[in-house]
Design goal:
globular; two-stranded antiparallel sheet; 112 residues; disordered N terminus
C-alpha cells in the first residue's frame, strides 16, 4: 500500500507546476512526447513529469505518488505500476487536455 503524507515538499510543487506548463503548451496521448516542431514538444502526463526531473529519483516518485493520490487513480507499490496507472488515465479516448490540466492542479494543491 502506498501512503503519502499530505505535505510533500516545495520541490514537488515546483516540478508539478513545471510539468503542468509543459502540458499546457502542448499535450499528447500514447507517447511520452511528440515533436511539435524543431524546438517544442507535446507531452503526456508522465512524459511531462519525466522531463522536469532528470534524475527520476525521489522527487519523481513523490510527484507520481502525489498525482495518483490527488486524483484517486489506482495505486501501486511499484513506480512502473504507478506510471502505468497515470498513462492509462492520460490515454483514455475521452480524456481532454483540460482534464489533464485540472488533474495537475489537484496534485499541486494536494502537495502544498
Amino acid at each position: 500500500m502506498c501512503i503519502i503524507p499530505k505535505f510533500v515538499s516545495n520541490d514537488v510543487v515546483a516540478k508539478l507546476s513545471q510539468a503542468k506548463q509543459l502540458v499546457e503548451d502542448g499535450w499528447c496521448q500514447h507517447l511520452f512526447a511528440i515533436p511539435e516542431d524543431d524546438e517544442r514538444f507535446n507531452y503526456c502526463t508522465v512524459g511531462a513529469m519525466c522531463s522536469t526531473t532528470f534524475d527520476k529519483g525521489e522527487t519523481f516518485d513523490k510527484m507520481v505518488n502525489t498525482f495518483i493520490k490527488a486524483n484517486n487513480l489506482p495505486p501501486s507499490d511499484y513506480v512502473m505500476g504507478k506510471m502505468t496507472s497515470i498513462t492509462i488515465w492520460n490515454d483514455a479516448p475521452e480524456r481532454t487536455k483540460e482534464e489533464v490540466l485540472a488533474a495537475f492542479d489537484k496534485a499541486i494543491a494536494y502537495a502544498e
